[in-house]
Design brief:
alpha/beta, 6 helices, 5 strands, about 40% helix
């Protein structure tokens, strides 16, 4: 088994290339990015293609005013994916009601690399 085969497979959904790069660089020791999506349509297709044990790191806003990340992660939960992170610049923008409906989704502020690493490490029980 190669190192990449032993790493957690992750789908990264973010319209910002710099954040997709950051995730690959910051987490390259513990994850293997198997797919990237830059918009809503790509993301919805990708979550239907990946196995249920794939992790998903998804940006809240894929457009200037949208909250597509919530819809994408709701669909991911419906499809049986369990390891989910909502990546956002404003964690308080996610309603408490949504958080109560989806308590297994970790909400991580962009720029809080320690919290992102901790959330990913939970997937493997580290």
């Amino acid at each position: 088994m190669t190192q990449a085969e032993s790493l957690k497979e992750v789908l990264v959904i973010d319209d910002d290339v710099s954040f997709r790069f950051l995730i690959r660089e910051l987490l390259g020791e513990v994850i293997h990015v198997v797919d990237e999506s830059t918009n809503f349509d790509q993301a919805m297709a990708a979550i239907k293609r990946v196995p249920n044990n794939t992790g998903v790191i998804c940006d809240l806003k894929l457009t200037f005013n949208g909250e597509e990340g919530l819809i994408i992660l709701e669909e991911a939960v419906r499809l049986g994916l369990r390891d989910l992170i909502l990546f956002t610049t404003i964690p308080g923008a996610v309603s408490q009601e949504w958080q109560k409906r989806f308590p297994n989704v970790d909400i991580v502020e962009k720029g809080n690399n320690g919290l992102l690493i901790a959330a990913v490490n939970k997937w493997s029980g580290v």
